[in-house]
Design a protein that fits this description.
By secondary structure, this protein is of the alpha/beta class. Helices cover 39% and strands 16% of the residues. It folds into five domains: 235 residues, no CATH class; 144 residues, no CATH class; 147 residues, no CATH class; 128 residues, no CATH class; 91 residues, no CATH class.
């Protein structure tokens, strides 16, 4: 329904100058309201900057800020300063006098526009001023150089007045063609965005002086005929050329722009996620509408044409929020919508909690108050958000889950959009891969990796006082764990509190606390070491060693380092943490002499004093990892893994070995360092090598050589299937005898095996389906599953493979990955369906993964445990469930969580979507068959628990 005052100028039926004048007046009325709001939020000195900038571009005067020379381009189209502005300039420079430029027709500064957050709901004291200086096309290089210098001088003057200003030169004709050599706002990602930047300009820009945009006068329904429309306006003199400038239209936005915008915001969001959430969601909204994108600037223009000039509803941030709100409500994604609301609230940063009498009044606070009431927020939630600067570990960890989910969702959306629109060209795909690695390094969970929980959520997580406790694990008798608690708790007090963090090993807990700033130089630690030998002095030294090896804050990872697999930069080995080896070898006390003895073959009884090693690494992607080695061969296994991690490259980490136990600490540390350095030096030799090491009374040889070929005789089908499913280190072709397996489905599967691919074969049998997978080394995995449709059968497997392949690809150089590619995932259907003999395997496309298909994210991390067992930790929608906390109730707890999250009561099957096994893999990364085996076992346990939930 048309608004009674809506203007609809029609190119075919004639255009009225009076109507055009009305339109321009509406835009200027709205503009004046926004400018007044911008001024309201500025200090008096910042207001002076904004008022005077048009004058400084209008005249060249040696006593005014920004003066370069008398020939610097000056003169703003149609601008004449009023008496109040001239008086303000004279207060700045008393000898300044203004001479009108009416006699000079040449006014090369065509327009001055302020864009960004000023005058919007999100304007803050620290908001910067992004000023577009639109100039004539005929300026010489010398004139342009002088104008650039003038802009720099004016930026410096603005800074002296307490205003952060960024001045950008724009030549409109070149801009329309997409030609520019620099960013055009302080939040601009460069030349990959043109139309989206123009969209932001048209809906946020505040006109200060000069010509006004022709775009204002073109109806939305004529946007696709924009060029014809403005040509008519100018050629028939409906609009004078000297009164308007053309920056282009928004009839079509190329798909690559959404990818560029998303990449930039994701990059920024890794460190400041709240600031990026709104723009990421807006990018998703636009991309989801492609190719019929109704961008916000067109919605804004439509409102002006309809004479709907409500400053609140046309506020740029309100428009962004309303558009996202409509999108997410339509998808039923209420958790994401709540995150958007929190992000907007924190972006505006006007506290609403506490007594109203203690809060200053402003239009921003009033509008935010109206929104919070609309959202149903109570005082408790407002107080929590207003105290974000004081958030500590628990609140930050909960918020991190939502933010990481959103960033990962946006990354998946961008990747899928790029594939669907064929926009992932070589450059775009490279950028996506680099960003994927950046997200992986920042947020991906892996065994032993220390999770960083505070990506720009709270200012400071440091605690004044903490209590560190070693306690008996009641869920696993005979085992212990370490807990970190708030406050100074007595010997038994801690039992009544929930720890901030609980870990099996001390160094894992200390590394987490250090990396996240929970423990800093001012934190006081109370220690309850249990039956360990850990002393306060050793604890102090352990924390000091961590602070030295993992020095905070970590520097930003360069793109160049992300192009290569991560390598260890810092390696800290801590020997015998919390253990005195001579107390554990009591008989050694009577044999101690002053003579020099080897810590690995100590005294006359040839005992090894290296009982445990805790390895802390910081790699080139800023990932901190912790791994513990104990038992009879702790040193050997640690040394083996260290040498394997170095490979044949020239890069070597900075190695530090520390020992703080009560007896012979320095001698032990020196001996271990000697072993590692001498073994490391062997890797510089290009020949295969063997390294002999004497530990206790045994001599050990470490070799890095290819495995041997093995010949196996098989008897019976079961033995054959076991053999076909064995993990292999390399691709092994399989040739079938003409009569082999002739009545089995595998007769169609096995001959099709190929290197460099994971091949999925499926055959539907009424209510169930058989799945056969040949991995990249030609090992076989089989599973029988309930069958509903092909999508629900294959999509979980596709998601799983993509997750493990992404992790695998992250360990390879990106250029190498581009040349060789990742493993292919190929699908085949065995036909005919139903009972009987399969006769053919027909290729099928990979199942389509779209963000409209909801699924529940379940990640598993499997690590070595005691007595040849494994430890399982599950993450459901970013929430952690571990055996350390839940024991044998782990799967039951996870099942209850999953059932509680489902919209329908139906107990359909649950799938593992991601799996990390890196701590189980002594060498390399393991083939896909190993991941599938663990996946099958975990899903079996989960689905049994689901059936009982």
């Amino acid at each position: 329904m048309n608004h009674p005052h809506e203007i609809r100028p029609d190119l075919d039926q004639g255009i009225d100058r009076k109507v055009l004048s009305q339109l321009r007046a509406r835009f200027l009325t709205l503009n004046q309201g926004r400018l007044a709001r911008a001024m309201e939020g500025l200090s008096s000195r910042q207001q002076r900057v904004l008022n005077l900038l048009p004058l400084f571009f209008h005249v060249n005067h040696p006593l005014l800020p920004g003066y370069v020379s008398g020939t610097t381009p000056a003169g703003v189209s149609g601008f004449e300063p009023d008496a109040q502005l001239l008086a303000e300039a004279q207060r700045l420079t008393r000898s300044f006098s203004y001479k009108a430029r009416r006699a000079s027709p040449h006014q090369p500064i065509h327009g001055l526009f302020l864009m960004g957050s000023l005058g919007t709901l999100a304007q803050a004291e620290q908001s910067d001023m992004d000023l577009w200086v639109c100039h004539a096309a005929d300026l010489s290089e010398v004139e342009l150089a002088e104008l650039r210098k003038k802009c720099l001088l004016l930026e410096a003057w603005a800074a002296s007045q307490g205003a952060e200003a960024h001045l950008f030169l724009i030549e409109p004709d070149s801009f329309v063609q997409g030609e520019r050599d620099s960013q055009l706002s302080s939040d601009d990602c460069g030349t990959t965005q043109h139309y989206l930047l123009l969209d932001e300009f048209y809906r946020t820009a505040i006109w200060l002086a000069g010509r006004t945009p022709l775009w204002w006068l073109v109806p939305v329904y004529e946007e696709r005929r924009y060029q014809d429309y403005i040509q008519t306006l100018l050629s028939k003199r409906f609009v004078r050329a000297e009164d308007a400038l053309d920056l282009g239209h928004l009839a079509h936005i190329p798909p690559g722009e959404f990818i560029g915008a998303g990449l930039w915001q994701l990059f920024k969001g890794i460190e400041s996620p709240y600031k990026s959430v709104l723009k990421l969601l807006l990018t998703e909204v636009y991309a989801s509408e492609f190719p019929r994108v109704q961008c916000l600037s067109l919605q804004f223009k439509q409102a002006v044409f309809a004479n709907r000039l409500d400053l609140d509803e046309l506020d740029p941030y309100m428009m962004v929020y309303r558009r996202i709100e409509q999108y997410l409500q339509g998808r039923g994604e209420n958790e994401r919508l709540e995150l958007v609301r929190r992000s907007l609230y924190l972006k505006v940063n006007k506290k609403l909690s506490g007594p109203a009498s203690q809060r200053s009044n402003s239009w921003q606070r009033n509008l935010l108050q109206r929104l919070s009431q609309e959202w149903g927020w109570e005082e408790r939630q407002l107080t929590l958000l207003d105290n974000r600067s004081q958030w500590k570990v628990r609140q930050v960890a909960a918020e991190r889950r939502a933010l990481v989910n959103e960033l990962n969702h946006s990354y998946r959306f961008l990747c899928q959009f790029a594939r669907h629109q064929n926009a992932d060209n070589r450059i775009g795909q490279r950028d996506l891969n680099v960003l994927g690695r950046r997200l992986y390094a920042a947020f991906e969970r892996r065994a032993g990796k220390v999770e960083f929980i505070n990506p720009g959520i709270a200012q400071d997580l440091a605690e004044d006082t903490l209590t560190l406790v070693r306690a008996v694990d009641r869920k696993e008798p005979g085992h212990h764990h370490w807990g970190l608690y708030n406050g100074n708790l007595g010997v038994h007090e801690w039992e009544h509190f929930t720890p901030l963090k609980r870990c099996r090993d001390l160094l894992e807990l200390l590394a987490w606390a250090h990396r996240n700033g929970v423990i800093d130089s001012s934190t006081r630690l109370a220690l309850h070491p249990g039956d360990s030998d850990l002393s306060e002095l050793e604890l102090f030294n352990l924390i000091g060693s961590l602070q030295q090896s993992v020095a905070l804050p970590l520097s930003t990872v360069s793109e160049q380092r992300l192009l290569q697999p991560s390598v260890v930069d810092e390696l800290l080995l801590l020997v015998n943490v919390g253990i005195d080896p001579l107390r554990h070898h009591r008989e050694l006390n009577i044999l101690m002499t002053t003579e020099r003895t080897d810590s690995l073959s100590y005294a006359g009884v040839r005992e090894n004093l290296v009982l445990t090693l805790d390895q802390v690494t910081l790699n080139s992607w800023n990932e901190v990892q912790v791994r513990r080695y104990d038992g009879e061969h702790a040193l050997l296994y640690c040394l083996r893994d260290y040498l394997n991690s170095l490979g044949s490259g020239a890069h070597r980490p900075r190695l530090q070995v520390r020992c703080f136990c009560h007896n012979r600490a320095q001698a032990i540390a020196l001996r271990v360092e000697e072993v590692f350095v001498s073994a490391q030096d062997l890797l510089g030799q290009r020949l295969g090598h063997r390294y002999l090491l004497q530990v206790e009374q045994h001599t050990h040889a470490l070799e890095l050589q290819p495995g041997a070929v093995e010949v196996i005789t098989l008897e019976g089908n079961e033995a054959l299937l076991d053999y076909l499913g064995e993990e292999r280190l390399d691709y092994s072709p399989l040739h079938l005898d003409a009569n082999a397996l002739q009545d089995h489905d595998l007769a169609q599967v096995l001959p099709l095996g190929m290197p460099g691919a994971i091949q999925v074969f499926y055959r539907v049998q009424d209510a169930w389906a058989d799945i056969h997978v040949l991995d990249e080394h030609n090992a076989l995995w089989q599973q029988r599953l309930p069958f509903h449709d092909e999508s629900s059968l294959l999509l979980p497997l596709q998601r799983f493979f993509e997750s493990i392949l992404f992790r695998r690809d992250a360990s390879r150089p990106l250029d190498h990955l581009h040349s060789l590619g990742s493993l292919k995932i190929l699908y085949y259907q065995l036909l005919p369906s139903g009972p009987g003999k399969a006769r053919i395997a027909e290729p099928r496309p990979a199942p389509a993964m779209t963000l409209d298909t909801p699924y529940y994210d379940v990640q598993a991390i499997v690590q070595p445990g005691a007595e040849n067992q494994v430890q399982v930790t599950l993450y459901c929608n970013q929430r952690e469930y571990c055996e350390l906390e839940h024991g044998d109730q782990l799967y039951a707890m996870v099942a209850r969580e999953i059932v509680g999250q489902r919209r329908q009561a139906e107990r359909y099957r649950c799938y593992i979507t991601d799996l990390d096994l890196c701590d189980l893999l002594a060498e390399g990364q393991g083939s896909s068959i190993r991941y599938l085996r663990h996946k099958g076992e975990l899903e079996r346990a989960l689905n049994e628990a689901l059936a009982q939930a």
